[in-house]
Design brief:
Layout: H1 2-27, E1 31-37, E2 39-40, E3 49-56, E4 62-63, E5 66-71, E6 76-80, E7 92-93, E8 98-104, E9 118-122, E10 128-130, E11 137-138
Parallel strand pairs: 2-11
Antiparallel strand pairs: 1-3, 3-8, 4-7, 5-6, 5-9, 9-10
């Protein structure tokens, strides 16, 4: 009988530990960030836009994170401000909600279209979430403006 009690206690402890770890992982902030766009030819025309999406996969709302478009090849970033986009930025991003920002290309003077860019979202607590590198345009034989 002692072996059964020891086995039951061990299984119960492991089960309780698993529940604690699962709860802690579920309560952390998780954002998925992506960037995209379609730019051909002259990059600085008003009709071109870059899109950046932030998806809150957390179970809680978070203050709207700061966003920066960064190009690693030239080590340059472009912070995205509310004045840069059409529409309004929400103050908070609700749990399991998303926001897509359309940013005019005129904001990105000096960006190299054939080099990858990433979107970087930073929360108020300093956590940083980065998109996969994405090439946003093709110059079709033209030279990069940067």
């Amino acid at each position: 009988m002692d072996a059964v009690a020891i086995y039951a206690a061990a299984v119960g402890t492991v089960g309780l530990g698993w529940q604690v770890v699962s709860q802690l992982r579920a309560d952390r902030t998780k954002l998925v960030v992506s960037v995209g766009g379609s730019f051909d030819g002259a990059f600085v025309e008003d009709n071109h836009q870059l899109s950046a999406s932030i998806v809150n996969e957390s179970r809680h709302e978070i203050p709207m994170p700061g966003l920066e478009i960064f190009q690693p090849s030239i080590r340059r970033g472009w912070p995205v401000r509310a004045a840069d986009i059409a529409g309004e930025l929400p103050d908070t991003l609700r749990a399991r909600d998303a926001v897509t920002l359309l940013i005019p290309s005129t904001r990105f003077v000096g960006m190299r279209l054939n080099d990858p860019v990433v979107a970087v979202a930073r929360t108020a607590t300093g956590a940083q979430f980065t998109s996969e590198p994405t090439v946003i345009g093709h110059l079709q034989g033209q030279r990069d403006p940067g």
